[in-house]
Amino acid sequence: MSKTILYFHGFKSSSDSGKAQDFKKFISETTKNTKIIIPDLNDNFQKAHQQIKELISNHGRNIVFMGSSLGGYYALYFSQLHDVEAVLINPAIPPLKDFEIHLGENENYATKNKFELTKEDISFIRSLHHKKIKKPENILILLESGDEILDYIATTKYFAASYLDIIYGGDHSYTSLKDKYIKVKNFLKIT
User: Fold this and answer.
1) Torsion angle defined by CA atoms of residues 46, 42, 34 and 65, in that order, rounded to the nearest 10 degrees
2) Of 22, 35, 85, 152, whose Cβ has the fewest other Cβ atoms within 10 Å?
């Protein structure tokens, strides 16, 4: 049975993310029935939300999710909404604590696109979560304790009932992903 992985990059990033592209290469070389889509998510959260909904509508049969940082936040939200598996890499977690530091003008690191982030934007992105994780067994969390941006201890508490894989050391970019390819492939049941 064929599957589609929707892989979401993090805040102020793009589909050119090294780990996303490396994982895509691994999937194309080791699977026959799996397609991976890594969209360039819009920097505007409402537009990104709509974009993801359209991708799901177009590819919604046998879909699973992956995401890194804010992409993990999106992947969690949509996996819970559609009752499917997701792999989250150093994910941002509700309520996106201290996200206000990004208020005002921002620049996407990858695309150089400049965009404004308002309080309304932050309220919107914070609204995209479920009060409780409905099926924690559908979620695999990949963490590195050396994440300099997100608190991995808060993440382990938030996802205490999910599958947790913690590497001590590393950083926010999650340098260990290549070591986890088979684990991710098995968790998502892809062939």
Assistant:
1) -40
2) 22
CA angle, 44 as apex, 48 and 117 as ends, to 5°? 150
Give the model's pLDDT for residue 1.
65
Q: What token pair was written down for 43?
A: 């920097």
Q: Which residues of 70-98 are buried (b: 16+ CB within 10 A; e: fewer)?
A: bbbbbbbbbbbeeebbbbbbbbbbbebee
Instruction: Name the stretches of the chain with pLDDT < 50.
Output: none
The closest of 2, 69, 12 to 40, measured between CA atoms, is: 12
* CA–CA gap between residue 112 and residue 110 (Å, rounded): 6
Task: State residue 61's pLDDT score.
Answer: 82
Neighbours of 115 (CB within 10 A): 14
3-state class of 9 per DSSP? coil
Give the separation between CA 182 and CA 176, rounded to whole angstroms.
Answer: 12
**Contacts of residue 187, Cβ cutoff 8 Å, sequence gap at least 6:** 85, 87, 140, 163
Report pLDDT for 186: 95
The total domain count for the chain is 1
- What does pTM read for this prediction? 0.96
Query: What span, in angstroms and rounded, lies between the C-alpha atoms of 22 and 20?
Result: 6
What is the average pLDDT score of the chain?
95
Host domain of residue 11? 3-187
